[in-house]
Amino acid sequence: MRKILFIAxxxxxxxxxxxxxxxxxxxxxxxxxxxxxxCNTHSLTQRIVDxxxxxxxxxxxxxxxxxxxxxxxxxxxxxxxxxxxxLKNRDPSQYLNYQIPEEQKINQDFYLNADKVFVLSKxxxxxxxxxxxxxxxxxxGCSIWSEDTFDFIESLLTVKKKNDLCILKSENPxxxxxxxxxYCKEKNITPxxxxxxxxxxxxxxxxxxxxxLFIPGVLETFSRVCAEAKMLNLKVLTTPKKLGFASEExxxxxxxxxxxxxxxxxxxxxxxxxxxxxxxxxEKDNSITVVLTCYRRPEYLEEQIAAIKSQTIKPKQIWIxxxxxxxNDHVDFLKFDVDRVIKNDFNWKFHGRFAIAQAAQTxxxxxxxxxxxxxxxxxxxxxxxxxxxxxxxxGIGVILQEDKYHGHKRVGWSSPNxxxxxxxxxxxxxxxxxxxxxxxxxxxxxxxxNGEDIQLSYLAKKYGNVNTYVPxxxxxxxxxxxSLKGMQYGVDDKATSRPSNHKVFYNQRDExxxxxIKNGWKPIFLRSKI
Length: 530
Known about the structure:
Blueprint: E1 3-8, H1 18-30, E2 35-40, H2 46-50, E3 54-57, H3 65-74, E4 77-80, H4 108-112, E5 116-119, H5 122-131, E6 137-139, H6 147-155, E7 163-168, H7 177-186, E8 192-194, H8 199-207, E9 209-213, H9 224-231, E10 235-237, H10 255-285, E11 288-294, H11 301-309, E12 317-322, E13 340-343, H12 352-357, E14 364-368, H13 378-386, E15 392-399, E16 409-412, E17 421-423, E18 425-433, H14 452-464, E19 468-470, H15 486-489, H16 502-518, H17 524-527
Helix pairs in contact: 6-10
């Protein structure tokens, strides 16, 4: 069962408020489908976060900036927005056309990095989209009630109206109890004050009234209490511009009509949360960090980046790993639209990029040689087949024929394969579940000058029983290919495997294959003899 963490400043048993009631109903629903744990925001730690696949964030005033950043860096999360925490004073209605000055905005990155921000009304969606463009907003158009509560409210429609006007007696200053009381004094009205902490008793008391006076001090994201008053057939006296509820067309309804509509919306909201949780977890499961290699071919970087950004399954981040060489000294790497540039003052050759890939915070890493430009379905091709057969995936597969590298059989973009093919090792492009990278470092490399592909597959098979595969490279479907220009870019005099270096290159790899077999590697040709 999926493990979900729900965090909030307070829970229903700690504080009785609209947000806490909302959260309680959402929590009850999600608990039917997931393993849910709750945590107060002030108690949240990295260790707690690490135990879960996704985090739902309700009110988060007490969430530390360090934990806010950790969530952004480490987990998919959903914000359930109750009271404008992107704004210092928490009241966007103070500004003309809800245009918030930049100096008043807060937590913008936290909203932008959320997989989804659920809001309660149209006006809240409009305000967030205007002031934090790029945030992914979903309006549920309601507060959330349980079916039992709807049934109870419906049962109160027959209660006799014996009181005229009621007001909400609340210690929360934004509910403006004192202002409502002052208004009643001016009008010479003695209000019925609603203050019973028992929720059902509160509703029953409200149902006995003809009118409900509510003068909010800030823009209410919905106003659960006003919706409850209208469901109970009270006439609501308020400032509509201060109610998110009033921005919804259902504000015109009351009684049974409103109950029916809010039943429907509450159910739809719960389903929307469940759908987004599934989407977010799936996206996390398939999240990819790309590591590009720059050495002597910086001229291909722009094309590589464009090809990676055109993938049908987008990577979460793109990094450039730069090995020092005079041919890239002149390059302004900041001009590339990527997430990280790791520029070294040393040539770490082939192994360094695999070391930095362990710092990725995604489930998968995809590494590319500097002459490799993938087709737009390459990641999709790898993920589709990984789901059926987990392992190390790559663009050129090598099947050894004997205890040396020379004389091997190749499959992949240079020798297309129609179906998924198990191989002994892969090169040019790698697609790996990050957890499998650990095996590469279980033993000291045979050589730091060559053979990182052999090292990876040898030790992954030896210590993790992880096989290596090349996904299909159908001749007429080059969009699935790991490399579209390998024959064009990979045969120049900069290639390590260039003809003038063949003797050194192949001798090193022959020796490494023999060493690996001697130390426990069983390539396919040896396994087939058993």
